[in-house]
Write a structure and sequence with these properties.
By secondary structure, the chain is α/β, with parallel strands linked by helices. Helices cover 51% and strands 16% of the residues. The radius of gyration is 19 Å and the shape is elongated.
Length: 238
């Protein structure tokens, strides 16, 4: 039986904040607005690039669609210049991914970041053969809508209840719940442990090694549940 893991990208597999900060602040500077500190931007992410830009703009123009759209287009131009300059894989992630593959997990990536950036970042940091399926922003609604996660699961060739969603935000935990998947929240990302737990995280991983332990535990539980269902059904038939 195949089991899968879907990973968020930003704050889960890779620290992308320095390059995002560079692009956002270059955009704001060109538009004549004040730049944002890193801690501010950390509160604006996880809902797609347009929402990141909207929240980064001054409050007075955050409802002006023309300004938001113009700033968003400019942001893409700026991010294109720097999106892989300082972005890096978190310590221990590459080793963890190799271990998961050795344990026969199908691996996927699902991000609200534009698809073209996601694919280049994943290829640059992890190579072309680590993940079985990679997807950024698409025609599907943004996470936490489950549509995109369910599509990735289908591409991985696994069932939702045999898949784990790994992420650093409440959005990721909600996505897992909406898609009928177990979830692992990671402590090394951009959101607090308390937020992850309040969003329904089934497990919290302090480091990539602990993430592996939780993933293997999920498999054991899933197998046990299957055995219990089989025994219950057999007993009912008797």
């Amino acid at each position: 039986m195949a089991y899968g893991i879907i990973f968020d990208l930003d704050g889960t597999l890779a620290d992308t904040m320095d390059d995002l900060k560079t692009a956002v602040n270059a955009t704001l500077t060109k538009l004549g607005y004040e730049t944002r500190a890193k801690f501010e931007l950390l509160n604006f992410i996880n809902n797609g690039s347009r929402e990141l830009i909207r929240r980064s703009l001054p409050t007075a123009v955050q409802k002006e669609d023309f300004i938001i759209d113009s700033a968003h287009s400019l942001f893409f131009e700026e991010y294109e210049k720097c999106f892989c300059e300082k972005t890096r894989a978190y310590t221990g992630i590459n080793e963890a991914l190799l271990t998961l593959k050795q344990n026969k997990f199908k691996l996927g990536v699902l991000s609200n970041k534009p698809d073209k950036f996601v694919r280049v970042i994943v290829s640059t940091l992890f190579g072309d053969n680590t993940f079985d399926f990679v997807m950024g922003k698409s025609d599907f609604p943004h996470k936490p809508d489950p549509s995109s996660a369910l599509y990735v699961v289908k591409e991985l060739g696994v069932k939702p209840h045999k898949c784990i969603f790994v992420g650093d935000s409440d959005i990721d935990m909600f996505t897992a719940e909406n898609a009928d998947m177990r979830s692992i929240g990671v402590e090394w990302g951009y959101r607090s442990t308390d937020l992850l737990l309040s969003a329904g995280a089934n497990y919290i991983a302090k480091n990539p090694a602990e993430m592996i332990e939780h993933a293997l535990e999920c498999v054991r539980i899933t197998k046990l549940e299957r055995k219990l269902r089989f025994r219950r059904k057999k007993k009912e038939e008797e």
